[in-house]
Amino acid sequence: MGDVARHAGVSAMTVSRVLRQPELVNKDLRLKVEAAIRETGYIYNLVASSLASQRSGTIALILPTVASSIFSDSVKGVADVARTRSVQMIMAETNYSSAEEEKVIESLLRRRPDGFIIVGVSHTRATRTMLEKSGVPVVETWDSTSTPIDSLVSLSNFDAMKAMTASLAQQGFRRIAFVGTVTRDRRAQMRAKGYMAGLAEAGLHEAVIFNARDVTSMGAGAEVAAQIIAASPRPDAVICLNDVIAAGVLLALQRAGLHVPRDMAVAGFGDFDFARHLIPALTTVDIPRYEIGQRAAEILLDRVEGKQPRPYTCEVSYRITVRESTERCARSK
Amino acid sequence: MGDVARHAGVSAMTVSRVLRQPELVNKDLRLKVEAAIRETGYIYNLVASSLASQRSGTIALILPTVASSIFSDSVKGVADVARTRSVQMIMAETNYSSAEEEKVIESLLRRRPDGFIIVGVSHTRATRTMLEKSGVPVVETWDSTSTPIDSLVSLSNFDAMKAMTASLAQQGFRRIAFVGTVTRDRRAQMRAKGYMAGLAEAGLHEAVIFNARDVTSMGAGAEVAAQIIAASPRPDAVICLNDVIAAGVLLALQRAGLHVPRDMAVAGFGDFDFARHLIPALTTVDIPRYEIGQRAAEILLDRVEGKQPRPYTCEVSYRITVRESTERCARSK
DNA sequence: AACCAATTTGTTAGCGCTAACCATTATCTG
DNA sequence: CAGATAATGGTTAGCGCTAACAAATTGGTT
């Protein structure tokens, strides 16, 4: 920067101003400095800038997993906002584990991000303390809670899944099973509980829950399909934790010779891209995934810039999207 | 850090050593310092560290898009290596545009990453110059070239698609069409050229190419399916730029009442998770997506740490995986 | 005992920027 | 036209670490 300053015959401070608040610099001088920057091929050093200004210009995004379509739209939402407001997003994954989350957040905190966006509201005590002590704004997402760390983009997995269960019950399905997972992931648990509540309210049978090996591969859904077929009595509908599992189940059922929805209806969660294209098209809970990321990022950056001085909570809606995979079409009984 | 040092009754430098090269510090002292860190709740500042040590401990990953399953396994590969070798990965997307890539790389360079992993080998002149001048190690991936910027994890999209075309021709398909895209994305172009070369070599007809609106949504595949069905003469096989498009085409063909593969075979590229689960299971080119990311990251970090003093090129293999969607089963002619 | 090398800790001087303040000049006010 | 006000640029002193070197201590050797 000193080099550029010399080239333009000004002080380093003026160069710094041209780069950060050009409106404070006289136009002629500014042009001269900009020319000097081009001539010297100078590349601004944000590391030094971050240290001096105590602002890193980064926001951290904590996800259960990056290698899945589940969160990719939310990531895109965050990334788009980050770009327009010129901050850099850094991502890390927790593999659905609070312990890993704690490690990951501690490690990211060392980079002094200006804020955190976290998927989920369930954290270890240490994580919470660490974040609170650091004074960094935090936006939690994809779940609901009455005690957010700071801000929240709320989504009630419980309500959504309860609504889906109610919808199927109302359509006349009488043995509705659920495919979940054994992990301690809170969003998965809330969905399972929503299912149970929905069943109870409809006055149907006891909950029937199958567990998938993991929640990000169709293979896990396909595996569990065998158990579902073998179950006695056999369910007439299955609600899956998410669309990936649902697709795995749906395709495996078909492969086993069952007709969906005649022999068994299948519903998912998330309304992923492929849901509407499957044959039969998948009934699912439509979640505004992109919007969750977008709003979280906007709230976070407003917090960072002080435009939003207080923690802020908002809620995103969900919608039951009924498609062919649960249509009781030509069924008698 | 001074605070911790006082607590432990040592100098700041010793604290720094405990954090970065604990083996250089006497065990007793080290334990005392570690206790002091815990007591004070000290969080190491990597921003200051980066500035002082001229190493940021980050690697940049440049992708066409983050919101798609296409690269998510490669991202995972990079992320896993990054974690074990304790560097942070920062990602940015180019939207399949060299101009955006240039902007994105310039912007990332300001953060002084220790290295770059870039999907693709086609860049603007300015991008290349910038990277070379910066002296940062670069690994290009997912494409092949004889003039890499630095290191390369090579994949021949041309060869792979040519092999797929040859495979279909050999299976007896006689009118093989291709679904590509109109963008100037080099990997897409090479795949199209590979298809054309394969056709030519098989001595079949002229190339028949359809274009999808985008390459990351099934909807784009579904749209193009209508054109394919209307084409005259109608192809008996379609090779798609990737599995997402292929799935869109396959499902739309079925929805239009065609039988796959009897009326038309469909092949994809990438062997995404869903390919083997679709009905019929999708014939595709199996690419080691995770491995590409993994190897790129390993090579890059070896370059960063000086373990690998010279640019290094390696190649990953592909495999034609024939599944039901192109099986000429019960077809007469 | 004198010497050397290895081991361990401390000291100094930045890394490349910017916050906060000061100095200068132009512009306005009554 | 004095005096206040803005607009503009420069100075100084760090931000919180670490590279490089210096110093002190230990142990082994002759």
Summary tags:
6-stranded parallel β-sheet; DNA-binding; homodimer; Rossmann fold; 3 domains; 333 residues; 434 Repressor (Amino-terminal Domain); 16% strand
Specify the structural class of chain A: alpha/beta
Instruction: Specify Rg of chain A, calculated over alpha carbons.
Output: 25 Å
**CATH topological fold name of the largest domain in chain A:** Rossmann fold
Count the helices of chain A. How many? 12
Measured distance between first and last alpha carbons of chain A: 79 Å
Strand content of chain A: 15-25%
List SSEs of chain A in N-to-C order. Answer: HHHHEHEHEHEEHEHEHEHEEHEE
What are the segments of chain A in which pLDDT stays under 50 over at least 5 consecutive residues? none
- Work out the number of β strands of chain A: 12
The total tally of domains of chain A equals 3
The CATH architecture classification of the largest domain in chain A is: 3-Layer(aba) Sandwich
Shape of chain A: elongated
- Supply the CATH superfamily name of the largest domain in chain A: Response regulator
Oligomer: homodimer
* Pair of chains with the largest interface and how many residues each contributes: A-B, 50 and 50 residues
Portion in helices of chain A: 40-55%
> How would a textbook summarize the main sheet of chain A?
6 strands, parallel
* Order of strands across the main sheet of chain A: 2-1-3-4-5-11
Instruction: Output the CATH class name of the largest domain in chain A.
Output: Alpha Beta
- Mean pLDDT score of chain A: 94
